[in-house]
Amino acid sequence: MRHLDSLLEHHMLPLLGSRRMSTFDSGVVEGFIRAMESAGVGLAAQANAFDKLKAILLDAHRLGLYDDHPLTGVKPPQYDPKRAVIPSPQQLRQIREAGDDRFRLITDLMSGCGMRNGEAAAVNLRNIVADDVYRITEQVNQTTGTYARLKHSKTGEYRDVPLPARVKQTIERYADTHGTTDGYLLRHPLDASKPFPHYYLNNQWQRIKKARETDMPEGMVLYSFRHFFASNCLTHNIPITDVAEWMGHKNIDVTFKTYRHLMPGAISTAATLLNHDLTSPDTAGVANQ
Questions:
Q1: Residues 70, 227: Cα–Cα separation, whole Å
Q2: Which of 131, 137, 264, 284 is the one with CA 20 to 30 A from 157?
Q3: Which residues contact 189 (CB under 8 A, 6 or more apart)?
Q4: Calculated CA dihedral for residues 78, 79, 83, 88, nearest 10 degrees
Q5: Quick count: other Cβ atoms within 10 Å of Cβ 79?
Q6: What pLDDT digit, counting tens, does each position of 190-217 carry?
Q7: Buried b (16+ CB within 10 A) or exposed e, 114-151
Q8: ∠227-231-235 over CA atoms, to 5°?
């Protein structure tokens, strides 16, 4: 119910709240999707809001409110690779330095370990299970403001991700400087008994963008730090199957559709490598003779 209320409050009612049900058609629905895209709403939130609207309109159609199906020809929200704005290493360093210690910690966890921002907000010293491995076990739910299970996972499930030495140093430095609560590094700035609130990160991100003091790529969003992780993995020839697992994607198709454009030379490279052990036409002809 909290999740539904959040979708209604932040995405559906501001754009559609004053519209009569009888006026919905495919054009209205497509306009709703475009408006969310223009506002920079994340793909997951777009898909969730579309699904809820779809359920409402399907019910109305079954009740006979529409002669024609209002979703006919509508293309659901889909990832557009052009929207994956990825900062360069130099830009990443500059942007992370523009924030405070909390911002730098979350930036390093997202760009270095591939965490979602909610997962980074739940960072805990106890989850460093090896010098180079961090175990992601929970996230801070943005709707409820509480610790919750991971996205696409059941209670108790976790995923292990690479822990680069520089990110481990950031974690340890933050813990030494600011201390921890039950192992948690990030807590509510005004009440240490509560988890770290997502709006604190969003507010700081907006301040950094508005200051225009960093070399920030056009169209970059907070999620771009996670895109950087995927890009860094793939450009260093780490298998996309591993990247999908570390990022917690439900299906590798999501990873492939999102980051396929980062591997434009994969097929050509494969063709060159596979060619080495193949029999040449001339050799085959001699062998047959």
A1: 35
A2: 131
A3: 197, 200
A4: 170
A5: 14
A6: 998 999 998 899 899 999 999 999 999 8
A7: bbbbbbbbbbbeebbeeeeebebbbbbbbeebebbebe
A8: 180
Tell me the two tokens of residue 94. Answer: 């500059």
pTM for the predicted model, two decimal places: 0.70
Q: What one-letter code names the amino acid at 48?
A: N
Q: How many CB atoms lie within 10 A of CB 73?
A: 9
Residue written as token pair 């990160």: 201
- What is the per-residue pLDDT across 133-176, written as a single tens digit (0 to 9) for each? 999 999 998 878 899 999 878 888 999 999 999 999 999 999 99
Q: Under a CB-based contact definition with an 8 Å cutoff, are residues 102 and 200 in contact?
A: yes
One-letter amino acid of 107: T
